[in-house]
Model the fold of this input.
Amino acid sequence: MTIKGQATVVKHTGSHYLLSELPQWNLFPAVLRGKIRLKGSTATNPVAVGDIVNYEADVPEDAPAGGLNGYVTLENAAVITSVEPRKNYIIRKSTNLSRQSHIIAANLDRAFIIATIDYPEIKLPFLDRLLVTCEVYNVPVTIVLNKVDLYRESHKEMLEAFHEIYEGAGYPVMEVSALTGEGIEALRDACKGNVSLFSGVSGVGKSSLIKALDPSLDPRVGEISDAHLQGKHTTTFYEMYALSSGGFIVDTPGLRGFGLVDLKKEEIALYFPEMLKASEGCRFTPCTHTHEPGCAVKEAVEAGEISYDRYSSYLGMLDEEGKYR
Done:
């Protein structure tokens, strides 16, 4: 008996996918039918974690309704036939200097960018590239400063300046500590009922935060695959987890670089909210905010109303020409 349905991609390992009909968490394996190509996409992965897909599966005649879990196995995997239009997604260049791109995740209610003022030292150009990408593809963002117990006193001025810069630009900033539990309840509440992305550079403590949110999870091990992919040598890039308190988290490996995709130079400033607001006073339209006389953005930077670090990130994006740091 062939049944058809719709489900969300929660994991991609090699040529196999794991699906679940969210908000239920009943996992079953699937494969692609032929080559699915999304219209206008240059991404290396046509199907990403968070995608809502249509599938077909062959199950026994006596299988109960919704009984895919247990009846659909690796040897009898469901087949993904098409991908539903995405409400949003986050995309990055696959590798340094590469023209290829990779979709990190799709259909997100919010992205939580995990950062630290120190341990490791924060990389503002990386953070700003990720923020711009979220703006371009309509993903709401919250910045989460982890490990605040380590640097709240020693880096007090830097911490205050960070809040002023990014909250002034319109981004919520949360302070948390996976070690002490500070802010974890508020972060857990923010994740309830949502599909959320956790992303950041290596070492900021994403895995520890996820485990603090739900001690039953272990992102390093990838527990959800055990029953379905036993004995398989798999490399997991992105994976969704179900929180026992409600909601779903898409975990990403620590990113070392983040290249902008499909963004023209003259458009970049539109995705810095504080620069977009200030640009209303520019003498020329369009204005690159670099050399033009009467540029309200440059005047705001000189007056300290726009962060010089944010402006420097913008100039770096203008100058990257296919490269990124």
Summary: Residues 89-251 form a domain with the Rossmann fold fold (CATH 3.40.50.300). Residues 124-136 form the longest helix (13 residues). The chain has three domains: 2-83, 89-251, 265-319.
